[in-house]
Amino acid sequence: MKLDSAGLMQQSICYDKNRSWTVSVSWGYAVQIFRGIFSVRDMEKPGRTFVNWYPKADHTAFAFNTRLFSRNRCEKPFVYYLSKAVYDSNMNRTVTEYVLNRESNTECKLKMADPSRIQRVEVYKRPDPHIWDKAPRRNCCRLLATEKEGIVSIDVGVCNEGEVVELR
């Protein structure tokens, strides 16, 4: 929180078109990799990790929209939790590391790139304390090319002109 309080848990969504992945970065908390390409509109909705206490009520009983929880193993995200955060003063950016939650590692027989080989996600972000004064009030993210086996690198920062989300 001391490194970038304005960006804490700010959600950024980006895509890896080559592997057909949707990546959601909640800076300072977690990164999720989904198999498939999902719209930003769907990804912005919180995933339903709870049920209504009244047994006969359905999802419309909530005061907000939620993303359905899929029982299909192939549609469950791979979740990486924050393990380390440091400030790189030479580059004027934070470097955060997220490691795979072992419970996320589900087998899937789909013929698409498998995120289970990714053990760690590195996120690079320049702090912007004035993000709430700008539009859009969220950061954009971009997947970076990396030579490291089992690692995905992501740049999170101010959106470029005309950029809201980027397909890569």
TrEMBL record:
Cross-referenced Pfam families: DUF604
InterPro entries: DUF604
Entry protein name: Uncharacterized protein
